[in-house]
Amino acid sequence: MRENFKMIAKTFYGFEDILEKELLTLGAQNVIKGNRYVSFYGDKGFLYKTNFSIRTALKILKPIHTQKIKSEQSLYKLFYEFPWEEYINIDSKFIIDSVVSGKIFTHSQYVSQKAKDGLVDQFRDRYNKRPNVDLNYPDLRINLHIQNDVCTISLDSSGSSLHHRGYRSATNIAPINEVLAAGLIKLSGWDAETDFLDPMCGSGTFLIEAAMYACKIPANINRKSFAFEKWNDYDSNLFNIIRESQLKKIINPTIKIKGSDKAPSAIEKTKQNLKNANLIDFVEVERNDFFQLQKETEKPLHVLTNPPYGKRLEGEINAIYQSIGDSLKQSFPNTNAWLISSNMEALKHIGLRPSRKIKVFNGKLDSRLLFFPIYKGTKRVHKLNKN
Fold this sequence. Notes:
Layout: E1 5-10, H1 16-26, E2 29-33, E3 37-42, H2 44-53, E4 59-68, H3 72-81, E5 93-101, H4 108-127, E6 132-133, E7 140-147, E8 150-156, H5 178-187, E9 195-198, H6 205-214, H7 236-247, E10 257-261, H8 264-276, E11 284-287, E12 301-305, H9 317-331, E13 335-341, H10 344-347, E14 356-362, E15 365-374
Parallel strand pairs: 5-6, 5-7, 9-10, 9-12, 10-11, 12-13
Antiparallel strand pairs: 1-3, 1-4, 2-3, 4-8, 7-8, 13-15, 14-15
């Protein structure tokens, strides 16, 4: 029986609820929501399973020590005296990522430097040799979190952010983050039982994340590596068992997932990324102007798209958003339409009242995910209220 331990799944603002549900579905125990993170318990196999399958987390951390510190000297002492030989040796490469808040420690880079000094001095004093820092390919990625005087040391089991799915080789000018895309799909309430359309698909991130969700394909199946594969206690046989058990859950969905874009380059990029993800047979993509599209059937349709925000289209952005609203009203009856945008002024020109407004961030952009239910038949059109 493997021992359970605490883990932390980091995520975006506003994604805590959907991440909690996803972790519970995977089998997490003692799940507790925080601010941009969810803590939970599981064993080593569950750590592997979470990294491999999770859609809405950016990283999975394993806390290994927490204590109060009052000064940079006590931080140095903590790292100097900590039993690092359980995790690395003198030939290992490592990196320390720090997040600090409060009045005692205010500079994350300085904190990382001080912690690094303590760690390497321990090895130097014992063996006259030290492990080295490697920013790109470390054997161990250490996460240091200090809030006021509480210091938590964690091991980063993921490595690079889990939004690096491994399928995207081609991007448009402003590609949407893969974890953000997966989270927006879940926030929109899509259950993979109705057809899905992204009429301005860019490089196809919404389409790929929707297809992986509908097929029950593990989110990180295309990643080349995880940080835990370099840990001293890595169990390759266990990881293979976990991987195979998740792959057996993949299904062939009966719904259609389609994308379009008026730019030929966007269609080429989308198709390339679909090939990389081995999903070219599950998603239909064609060059088409959204404003010329017509809904193909009377069946319910789920639309999710990321229209331009206007920084490169200042003079015409309001007209574009008005056309989006007109197209939805005229050509997409019986449709649940969702879009994300940070252009609050342009959103007023859609000419539809949103049933829901969800605050999210696209990178550093304060954005809104808006829901426009388009009913079959006539319905009085409301103007969009101001935020």
